[in-house]
Amino acid sequence: MAFLKLYRNKLQENYNYLDQLFQERNITWGVVSKLLCGNVIYLEELIKLGVTEIHDSRISNLKKIKKLHPSIQTVYIKPPSKRNIEKIVKYADISFNTEIYTIQLLSDEAKRQNKTHGIIIMIEMGDLREGVLGEELLSFYEQVFSLPNIEIRGIGTNLNCLSGVMPTQDKLIQLSLYKQLIEAKFNVIIPWVSGGTSVAVPLLLKNARPMAVNHFRIGEALFFAKNLFTGETFENMHNDVFKLYAEIIEITEKPNNPIGELGENVAGNTYEIDENVDLSQTSLRAILDFGLLDMQPQYLTPTDESITIIDSSSDMTVIDISNSENKYNVGDLVSFDLQYMGALYLLNSDYIEKVVE
């Protein structure tokens, strides 16, 4: 059975590095746990790091966190749906919001539960996902800041999540100006300007973050240490917190090209034979015990660089091991490094075992 392994020490070292980075700059931050897909084994590892604030886009995951550690501050990081209002107030201490109608529902429900629910007003900054338009922000704030059982914890924005708009210094300065406008207009204090995600970490390292941006939400940088501006790994961090291990279930020398009339395969693709290639060529192929039900192969990189991934069907993956110096046998494990989306697929699969080292 293929399994996903989390390396505890590497995760802890990444967390310590980021925590020091934020503490030195007086930045509050929370860990985005949605990658873990509510896996209790890995959520427990997250809590052991010393995390005090966890963000997620699935209320069922926040429910598990509250059960594991009730004192952790939970943040629901997308606008709530009407049908989830009761659960969001119950399991999320704070939620991201963009609709007055929804905030009114949260206010009514928080009153019923005898709670104060925190909200962050999300502002549209060009990425064209969720957010109140900037020219409507003051009017929006005026309609919600006096609602009972609602506490406005801050303003925020999402960048690089839909259209790929990057969080430049200018974008974050603009977000900071919205804070100044609200505070001047209504004589209030906005505690958080939540403008930082993993993609904005390079701005911190270059000291290019506006000081008003004082809250970050971090997922990919913690688990993959990836500089999303350059594609490189941050210094002093690990990019291999997760690895996939799959077992070889067949090894056979086979032709490089299929034989017979060709149609669409299970994924809807049609194989095209290159007429310039010697059709008699063969390669040593190994079959692994995972497939498209678990993973999209483009998000995998074999740690043995001489291995080539050929393709996947629903629950098997074929690799070419012809050029490897390793003498693989049936029953051996082949390991893979993962991109973020690769880990997300695997963590969402019930067929992949989850382990910790």
From TrEMBL:
Domain Alanine racemase N-terminal: residue ranges: 9-225
Statement: the UniProt record of this protein carries the keyword Isomerase: yes
Cofactor(s) it depends on: pyridoxal 5'-phosphate
UniProt key word Mitochondrion: no
UniProt entry keywords in alphabetical sequence: Isomerase, Pyridoxal phosphate
Source taxon at top rank: Bacteria
Name of the protein: Alanine/ornithine racemase family PLP-dependent enzyme
